[in-house]
Amino acid sequence: MIKSILLLYKKLTLFQRFSLISFAIVLAGMIVVGLFVNEKIKTAVINETAADTAFYMESFVAPYLQELATSDQLSPAHIQDLDKLFKATKFGRHIVAFKVWDGNGRILFSDKPELIGLSFPSDEEQAIAFTGKINATITNLDEEEQQKENPNYDNLLQVYSPIRQDGSDRIIAVAEFYQTVNLLEADIAKSQQQSWVIVGLVMMLLYFSYISFVQWADKKITRQELALSRQVTQLTELLNHNDVLNERVKRAIAHATELNEKFLRRISAELHDGPVQDLALALLRLDRFTSPADTGQPTHSQQAWLEQLPEIQESLERSIQEIRNISRGFGLPQLEEMTLPEILKRVAHAHTKRTGKNVALEYEDLPDKVGLSFKITAYRFIQEALNNGARHAQGIGQKVQVHTTDDGFIEIAVSDQGPGFDPSQSIEWGDHLGLSGMRDRVESLGGIFQITSQIGQGTTVTARLVPNYHEDKLI
């Protein structure tokens, strides 16, 4: 049984446990307070009843007892008067029994004549009365003299009232009288019942007020805990994302020197294999027609010189065009004032003009403004992806698709319908300068770079970027 209760208690929530324990404490407090108040009510009612009866007692009985100030017993005439008072008057009918005591515990008068003159040990209440205080209690009639005179009652209200000498505070005797407790107990029970109701209502009001406050505080704390938990989760996600970004930045920085070196070597090779060769050819042709300062005669005739001029001119023009093409790859159009759709159109048009390959362009749900760094990254990513498609897929079915995803990213996908490759084979990034550059550009902005391909099904290069909406400037 106890184990079942403990298991049930463990299943309760913290608030339910608190409510249960609080209810037990309030109930115990209500019982203690109720018992205390009931006892006080009982004492107050008894004392009030005793005081009222003692007042009448002093008014009706004291005049017949004044001779005790000078004598140690009552005269027969006064005893007879007292008998009439308790037997023939309305006042006497409320009194069950009556005695008059002297200070030695002797009965000077009693409504039971056989008790007059008998002595009994003085009790505490009687001694208190001789000090001048009225005291009362509900007795079970278990004392010797009580059992002799009141055999028909289980309990009575016993009152001791001091009798004073007229005109002074001297106590000449103590009157003891008994009353039935039926009406008194009814009054006490009614008052106690009312006190229980009041105490119960007050305690329950305090309990429910306190519980309501605790419940409100518990709900508020729970909401704050949930909000804090969500914030901690978001912060954890942000920290994890920052760690990923930091790792990408570190990787990009680590590759920066190597990539720059390879980029410079590629430019050097393009310059050497292109315009430098043409310029060398032109110089070689010109060397044949230099002034014959050493030989004294020309190497070729004037006619031969004229025939070589078109070839020299063509080499020089080709060199200039090569240098322009290389230089054009370094420079970007004025992107700062362009919108993202305008940039997409510009890079697609530039690629078509340069390679003669058409590019399908699709875009939707793009923001009106993005930062300059985002524009540059998008432009270079698309430019390099199209160049790779033109080189490795002969520009077949090239397409650029750009849209905003539900989670706030801008996704750029550049695809072709070329031969494709097996993605399960790891890519040697160091051998693919263009791919490395695209990946590092995307990851440096906190984006995600991805390549998907299938043999015979073409290749798609995707970048998922978070748009930086502020208008940043290049330094």
Description:
The chain is 57% helix and 14% strand. It is of the alpha+beta class and 475 residues long. Among the domains are: 14-190, PAS domain (Beta-Lactamase), CATH 3.30.450.20; 332-475, Histidine kinase-like ATPase, C-terminal domain (Heat Shock Protein 90), CATH 3.30.565. It has a five-stranded antiparallel beta sheet. Strands 6-7-8-10-9 form a five-stranded mixed beta sheet. Strand 9 and strand 10 (458-465) form a beta hairpin. The longest helix is centred in the middle third of the chain and has 106 residues, at 182-287. Mean pLDDT is 78; it is low at 291-299.
* Main sheet characteristics: 5 strands, antiparallel
> What is the number of helical segments per DSSP (H or I, 4+ residues)?
11
Could you name the CATH topology of the domain at 14-190? Beta-Lactamase
Mean pLDDT over the residues = 78
How many β strands by DSSP?
10
- Examine the secondary-structure arrangement and name the CATH architecture of the domain at 14-190: 2-Layer Sandwich
The CATH fourth-level homologous superfamily of the domain at 14-190: PAS domain
Helical content class: 55-70%
In whole angstroms, how far apart are the ends? Answer: 79 Å
Question: Structural class, from secondary structure content?
Answer: alpha+beta
SSE run: HHHHEEHEHEEHHHEHEEHEE
Please give the CATH class of the domain at 14-190.
Answer: Alpha Beta
User: How is the largest sheet built, in terms of strand order?
Assistant: 2-1-5-4-3
Radius of gyration computed on alpha carbons = 59 Å
Beta strand %: 5-15%
Task: Give unreliable regions as ranges.
Answer: 291-299
Shape descriptor reads rod-shaped
